Structures are given as structure tokens and as C-alpha cells.
Amino acid sequence: MDQPLRATDEARLLARVADGDEGALNALILRHGRGIRLLAARYLDDIQLAEDIAQETFLRVWRHAGRYDPNRGAASTWIYRIATNLCTDRYRRRRFARALGLEPGSEESPEDMTAGPWVDAEQALAGRQQLARVREAMADLPERQRMALLLSAVAGMDNPAIAAAMGTSRGSVEQLLVRARRTLRDRTHSGEIRE
What we know:
Elements: H1 7-18, H2 22-44, H3 47-64, H4 75-99, H5 121-139, H6 143-153, H7 159-166, H8 170-190
Helix pairs in contact: 1-2, 2-3, 2-4, 3-4, 4-7, 5-8, 6-7, 6-8, 7-8
């Protein structure tokens, strides 16, 4: 497995992308593409939209890499900020379209992205049932709590990086995460989730 890129390496890659280096963009896609797809799939509950978000994220990285300022944060945070904004915008548009009856719910499930042939049927069923309970509880979380939790759990970001990606303070992120985790714990353990 490749060694993780250091923040300075990623900043250099973004500088190369700004100069039109497609190889540098491919390196960033390899490094962050899967995480962005997982984040978007879990936030939007739709694999196809997650692919669209990942593609649009890296298209914007390609177009706007020259705007990245390494003095304002890590390259990965800048990239996830783009993805976070795209997810939030898409979620709000979908919610509005669904309210008007213009868009049906998703048929696909993000956990399909992580299932593998090595998981036996019984484990898969139990895992899917648990994931369905957690996903339902997460879907009921306020948008900002859900995004903070996903950036932490899926993208593996620490609180300062989440704050930068969401455009908020570290204290706000801490509160968002505390509330989100408490709500999930209460709902998944108290049976409050709709069956």
C-alpha cells in the first residue's frame, strides 16, 4: 500500500494541478476519491449521486486549483470543503424536488459499496439491518450534525479540519458531534427508529 501523502505533498500536487498537470489531479483523485464518494453516498443516500459529486468535486479542483491557499489550511480540507458544499447543495435541491413530488427516493444503498463476497449471508443481513437503523437515525439528524459526523467517521477528519471544511468554528464542530452522537445513541438504543 502506498504511503499516505503529507499535507505539503498534497499542496504541491494542487500547485501542479493549477499548472495543468493531469497526473497531479489523478494522484489527488486516487488519494481522496473513495472517501468523497463514501461521504456523498452516506450523506445523500444515493450511490449514483455520490459518483456525480466526486466527479464534480475533482472537476472544480481542476478548474480552481489556483485559488487554493496553503496558508488557510490543508489541501485535503480544501478538497473536502468543495465536496461538502456540493453535497449540501444537492441534498437541499433533492429535498425540495421530493417535496414537490418531482424526484423519487433512491433504490440503491450506500452500504452496497462496502459489501464484499467474503461476507456470509447471515452477517450481511444483520449488518444491513443495523446499517438501516443507523442510516434512518442519521437521516433524521439536522444537516450540519450529519455532515460533521460523516466528515469525522467517513473522511477521518479531525475537528479543526471539519471546522475548515464546513466553514465554522472548532467549538461548533465539537457541539455538532456531541449532539449527533447523543441523538444516534439514544435513537438506536431506545427503539425510537421507525420500523
